[in-house]
Each structure stands twice: as C-alpha cells, then as structure tokens.
Design a protein that fits this description.
This protein is an alpha+beta fold. The protein is built from 15 helices and 21 strands. The protein has an eight-stranded antiparallel beta sheet with strand order 17-14-16-15-19-20-18-21. Strands 8, 9, 10, 11, 12 and 13 form a six-stranded antiparallel beta sheet that branches. β1 and β2 form a beta hairpin. The longest helix is centred in the last third of the chain and has 20 residues.
C-alpha cells in the first residue's frame, strides 16, 4: 500500500522556503528557485552541466530556516547542517530522491520527529528526508478467528511519519491497539521502529519492532521494496532496529491486540534498590500486570533512593476486572509511603505525559539539551550496575523534567536481531533522561563524556546501549554492540546501501 500524505501536510510543505530545481555535480551544490511542485526534469537535462531534480509531488528546500531546523534535534547539542531538505508529497518522491542521491553520492538521513539526542538523524552537506508528511493511517483489518497464537487480533498499515498518538486513536475506534508504546506518544512510527521501541508493555509483548508484520522501504540504491519475515527477510531484519542504515522506512504494518476501555494504575514506593528490582522481576515472571516500569528520584540529601514501581493492569475486554488485592499480593512496597491506585481511561493512561510536556514547552525547557543515557543491563548484575550509576549521580540535578527510569524486560519476548539486549532472561532498561541548560555547553559535553564511561562499564559486564541517547560510538563500538548479528548486518548494508549513503550520523559504518 503506497501511503500518500494528507492534503494539509502537502500544502504546508509547499508553503515554506525556496525549492531546489537542479544539482551542480562539480560544485556539489544545489540550485534553488521558488517553492512549487517540480515539473518533469530528468536528471542531467537542466543544462550547463547541471543535473535536473526529478519531478516531485512535494518540495526540495535549501532555505536557511529549513536547513537550520534539521541541523538540530531533541538533544540540542549536535548540529550538522544539511545541504537540502525533502518534504515528500508521496512515497515516489522518496524513491526518486534517494535514487538521485545514489547517482550523485549524496548522503541521506530520514527524520521523523527529530527526537534523537546526538545527531542520529542529521547529515552534514547531505539530504534530510522529513517523513512527517507520510502520515497516512490505513484501514484497520481484523484477523479471522483461528489465526495462529500470538498473531494478535488485527493489523493496520501506517505511514512512517504517523505519530503513535494518532495511530492508537485510529485503532481504538475499532477496539484495538498496538500492544507496545514508548512513554511519549508523539514519536513517529518510522523513528521508533528504526531503534526498537521499548516500553512498559515490553515484558509481555516485546518491543515495537517485534510487533511488525511487514514493511515498505526505500533502499539506499533507491529501490522500493516490500519485505516481511517471509519476503526479503534479510532486509526486514536489517531495517527493524537497524538505525536507518539499509533503507528508509516509508510504511509499516503493525500487529494489533484487543484494547481495554480502562486500566488500574499503581505507583508503589520502595526504600531499597534490591527489593525494588526483585519485585519488578516477580511481575515479569507472573505477568499479572500488562505494564511495568519504574523510576528513581533523589531524596533530600541528593542521593537517588526514591524507588517507585509503576504498574498497570488492563481491564475488560482486554483482561479481567482488576482486583487490587490479587494484583498487589506478595509485593514488598513501603505501605507507609505515598501509594497511588487509580482507574484511568486507556488512552488517558497512554497519554499521561502530555500535560507535563506541554508545561515544559511553555517554560522553554523543551529546547534545553538532553544528553540522555540509555543502557540495557544484565539482570543478574542490575543491582550492582544501577547502584554504581546512581551513587555517581548523587547530588547531581537531572534538570527540569529530567527523570531516571529503571525497569525490566523479558528476553523471551524480544526477537528482533538488531535490538541488542544482554544475554539474560530479565534485562533491565536504565535511562537517565538529563535536561541541561544549553547555555553551559561544557557541562553538556562533560555529561556526554561521562555517559560513554558508564557505557564502557556496562558493556564490560555484558550490557548494551539502547541507541536513542547521547553516547558517542565508533564503528568499533558498534561492531561490539551487534556482536553475533554484525556479519548479517554488514552484508545487508553492502547489499542495500552499496555506496554507504544512509544515516551517516549514527557512525555505524565508516564513511
């Protein structure tokens, strides 16, 4: 299914900036004109040795405002200025421009909501493809009774630029939902599928990449390909959690499950790290909750000792009516602390961060630097590793809106080869979501350096990084990260991006 953008997004794209009409191969520069849909102008026919830009339904821009916007991301600390920005009016635009860039050896990066924190979707002097206009959400399809176990109850095919909040609102109209969500819903489908997509439901359902049944992608050679576990499976495996290295995702077919109408939501305080982790592991083992996460806050002295398990049980029709006594049985939380138990609407629960994000945006803090640390710890040494990190952070302010997350996953549910997790049945995600004043770049740089030092310690203990944060990585680091998956990943890179043009900001393969 070829997803076209909505009329609103196309008109928005056409309204902004000056559009590119040709490329000068000798000067490696673009020739711009008024913004408008491009006429038919095959490459090499623009005259004077110029390569004419292909006919596009959208726009190709080089104005300073468009370039500057895509030279930034949510980290607000890495800035690489592209040479041009594509706002596609169709999937065909992505095909045409990637093929054009392949011919002229122009590097390309796809950008969804720009929520990377270390320049992952940036490219110096290359082309940025803004996928936000590819935001169509197709019809929800209900699967027939008797479908294989684990297949879900339906599917929906969506454009890579669709955000998860829009996807779930569309599927809820049919009583269905994607099974796994990141805590922040305003991320693009293509963006999270390029990384993995972990959330509190991952101990039951795996990552978002484990719930994709098919993809439509544009390879680095400009080939439009549909792939799945049975059709071009090597490409399918190389794209999911593949950091954009082998292809640009343009649409994905997502597995859906029955959605609850309401949920029972708990916040349970703990005073001891080992007890907190043990109870989380218990909740993974018995799966009594559909969602399990947890956060850690500093006490009055600045030590990170305020542990809180966040857990949610789904009600009908996705599960039985929640029973508080049964759900909390055997858990060793601090009953003298601030325990929260409330019933929420399902979407209200999923979207619970929205008011806080709006407040940060209003205060201007959303534009601060976010040198995040995101690691996956082996479960058997999670207490020691997390305790060491938390001790090092004592007295340090994570900043307005900053938070420390520590929660369990289940390796048995994580099947995507390029989503690298420790060799442990219950690994833990440790995420330190720093928010620092960008007016102090030295402090931001110091935090990034410290992140890498922590990563080295965790890697030596068998951990990996979850690659959404600010941990500088060399190709050798990536080789170690991917370990047994590296040979197949490298082969796919050579096969599907033969000139090594895609996603250079990740530094996975030497350029």
């Amino acid at each position: 299914m070829h997803h076209q953008p909505t009329r609103r997004t196309v008109l928005h794209s056409m309204a902004a900036g000056a559009a590119v009409v040709a490329f000068d191969p000798s000067a490696r520069s673009w020739i711009a004109g008024p913004a408008r849909p491009h006429p038919a102008q095959p490459a090499g026919t623009a005259g004077n040795g110029l390569a004419g830009v292909p006919k596009l339904d959208g726009t190709l821009l080089t104005d300073p405002a468009s370039l500057a916007a895509d030279a930034d991301d949510f980290g607000h600390s890495v800035h690489r200025l592209p040479a041009a920005v594509l706002r596609p009016g169709s999937v065909a635009d992505v095909v045409a421009m990637v093929r054009f860039c392949n011919t002229h050896r122009i590097q390309v990066a796809a950008r969804g909501q720009g929520h990377g924190t270390n320049g992952q979707a940036q490219v110096a002097d290359g082309l940025i493809i803004e996928t936000a206009t590819l935001d169509a959400i197709g019809p929800v399809r209900t699967l027939a009774a008797g479908t294989a176990a684990g297949a879900g109850t339906g599917t929906v095919t969506v454009g890579a630029g669709a955000v998860w909040s829009a996807v779930v609102q569309a599927t809820l109209a049919h009583g269905l939902t994607p099974p796994v969500f990141t805590d922040y819903l305003e991320l693009s489908v293509g963006g999270t599928l390029s990384v993995g997509g972990l959330g509190g439901q991952s101990h039951r359902y795996g990552a978002q990449v484990d719930n994709v049944t098919a993809l439509q992608v544009v390879t680095g050679a400009g080939e439009l390909v549909s792939c799945s576990p049975t059709r071009r499976p090597d490409l399918f495996r190389a794209v999911l959690a593949g950091l954009g290295q082998c292809a640009v995702i343009v649409s994905a077919t997502l597995r859906l499950v029955t959605a609850p109408t309401s949920v029972r939501h708990f916040l349970l305080p703990y005073t001891d790290l080992a007890t907190y982790l043990d109870d989380q592991r218990r909740l993974v083992d018995d799966a009594r909750f559909a969602y399990v996460e947890g956060s850690i806050a500093p006490d009055a002295s600045g030590a990170f000792t305020g542990y809180v398990i966040e857990a949610t049980a789904y009600g009908p029709p996705a599960g039985p009516e929640p029973d508080d006594t049964a759900l909390l049985r055997g858990l060793r939380y601090d009953r003298s602390g601030a325990v929260t138990a409330e019933t929420l609407g399902y979407f209200d629960f999923l979207n619970r961060l929205a008011p806080g994000v709006a407040a940060l945006e209003a205060a201007g803090v959303w534009a601060w630097a976010h040198p995040w640390l995101n690691l996956l710890l082996p479960g058997d040494c999670a207490a020691a590793l997390a305790g060491s990190v938390l001790d090092q952070m004592a007295g340090q302010d994570t900043g307005p809106g900053g938070v420390v997350l520590l929660y369990p996953l289940s390796s048995a549910r994580l099947h995507t080869p390029l989503l690298r997790v420790p060799d442990d049945p219950v690994p833990y995600l440790l995420a330190v979501l720093w928010t620092l004043d960008p007016a102090d770049p030295a402090a931001v740089a110091a935090r990034v350096t410290a992140n890498h030092a922590v990563y080295e310690t965790v890697r030596a203990a068998g951990g990996t990084q979850y690659p959404v944060g600010s941990i500088p990585m060399t190709p050798a680091d990536w080789h170690t990260q991917y370990a047994a998956a590296w040979p197949e990943f490298t082969a796919a890179k050579h096969r599907y991006d033969p000139h090594n043009l895609l996603a250079p900001g990740q530094h996975v393969f030497p350029t």
